[in-house]
Amino acid sequence: MKTDFLFAVFPYVAVGLLAAGIFVRYLLLRKQGAAMSAEISEARAVFATGRLWRVSLLLLIAGHLIAVVLPGAILAWNGNRFRLYLLEGIAFAIGVAALGGWLALMWQNLKRHGGSVLTELSDTALLALLFVGILSGLLLAVLYRWGSSWGAMILTPYTASLLRGKPAANFILQMPFLVRLHVFSLFAAVAIVPATRLGTAIVGALQAILTGLGKPISAGGRASEAWLRKHNPAPWFWPEED
Amino acid sequence: MRIRTMLSALMGCAGLLLVLFLLRPVKAQPPAVTTNDDDEAQTAGPKFSPEAAGIFGKRCTACHTYGKGIKVGPDLKGVTDRRKRDWLLKFIHASSSVIKSGDPTAAALFAEFKQQRMPDWVDLSDKQINDILDYISIGGPDIKPADELNAASATNTDIEKGRQLFYGEIRLKYGAQACANCHNVRGGMGGNLGPNLNDAYFRFQDKALTLFLRQPCFQWDTGASQDIYLAPKESFAIKAFLRNIAVQQRNQASLSSGGRAGGGSQ
Q: What SS3 class is residue B82?
């Protein structure tokens, strides 16, 4: 029952916490440009130091997203043994690189002087969850090989069931502990993000997107206002008023 | 500022991928490898239809036997040789009107079988009736599905085909994934998420393995999907491959234990 909760309900709780947390932080931070900029640069120092870490993490995220979005393509690719070995080898190498990047990042963080206890705690918890995710991913690649194939067959339908709002937790419940740990660490990381400095960075990114979207909208609004002023039909309807 | 740009790009990509995911077709495209087309190949002449076998079992066997004599109506073995196809089609669709029309064969049957009239199967299409007649003509209930054949009767070709299906070198007809994604056998490089299948054949024995292979081996779909998992010939070939592996393993084990016993006695 507990495990059922972890994989059927908790994913929604995690996403809810992320959305609510980011929204609250957006409301709190949107007018504090300087404070936000300072916190974003701190977030960069805590979470994004080192090219190896950044690149390997982005590649891991992209790989997982591709497996979720295009499982058929992954399975087709893996239909050939050589290509399967190639994909698994590259994915494992990226995982090892991410672990190395994480260790380097932690080494940097150990030398850094922190901010508030709460922020430091939540940042540390997120980094720990990332470590659990990476390590469990590497271990399951070794212990339960061809994860790219069975992941596309098992984890993708599970993710799809979550997106459809009908969570099929039995996909995960029948999996070994390491797989469940790997999946759970992702949801736990998602839930904790708003409490970390990374949350501030997301707020900043969100603000940048909204500002970016706002520019063409306001430009369009100005252009249409000018057009209306130029082609104002009022004198045509009520010429006596001129 | 770089982290903000990076996160914006990441969020944009994630959004794009989410849109792609939501727009993708529900069923994944099957892998682009050789198709297992020889199973149930389109050949001239009557062919087995599982649907026809089902209808025969549900509707015909209440009153008819196949090769076991008269029940309520006549024995249907050889009926496709005794009667013309057109006549059978008409009679199965609407026996009452054929009898009323004064057809001598229908009238004789009506008299012979104590004026018991067969129901008018108006809901069956001509194709369904033709499939049932084909099913009767090729052996009816006497036909054994290909997967029920004992794996001991498999040829080397069957075993090789089973190996190819197991490792995904030939695509499974109904889109199921190759066993080697999760399972391994001796001398192979299959996955190890699922159990090793070296001795699966002897553990389950032929009949239980046949029944097992009719269901997806991993019960993901609690929604009781009605889809066919493996084609009967595929199931037989995989069974044959697993039997071959189990026999090899047993032979090797007996050889090595014989060798050890021989070594000990020296």
A: helix
ipTM over 0.95: no
Whether the CA torsion A16, A22, A25, A27 is positive or negative: it is negative
The per-residue b/e assignment along B144-158, b for 16 or more CB within 10 angstroms, e otherwise, is eebbebebeebeeeb
Say if A47 is an interface residue toward chain B (CB within 8 Å): yes
Name the token pair of B5.
Answer: 């740009």
Helix A33-47 crosses helix B2-23 at what angle (to 10 degrees)?
80
Gap between the Cα atoms of A178 and A186, Å rounded: 13
Whether A150 and B182 lie within 8 Å, measured CB to CB: yes
Q: Is A44 at the interface with chain B, CB within 8 A? A: yes
What are residue B101's phi and psi, to 5 degrees?
-70, -10
Residue B1 forms contact with A (CB below 8 Å): yes
Between chains, do B17 and A65 touch, taking CB under 8 Å as contact? yes
Instruction: Indicate the residue of B7, B14, B28 with minimum beta-carbon distance to A65.
Output: B14
Q: Is the Cβ of A53 closer than 8 Å to some Cβ of chain B?
A: no
| pLDDT tens column, A172-224 | 888 899 999 999 999 999 999 998 888 888 888 888 888 888 888 888 888 88
How many Å apart are CA B149 and CA B207, to the nearest integer? 9
To the nearest whole angstrom, how far is the Cα of B84 from the nearest Cα of chain A?
Answer: 49
Shortest CA gap A79–chain B (Å): 6
**Model-level pTM?**
0.67
Count Cβ atoms below 10 Å from residue A177 Cβ, excluding itself.
Answer: 9
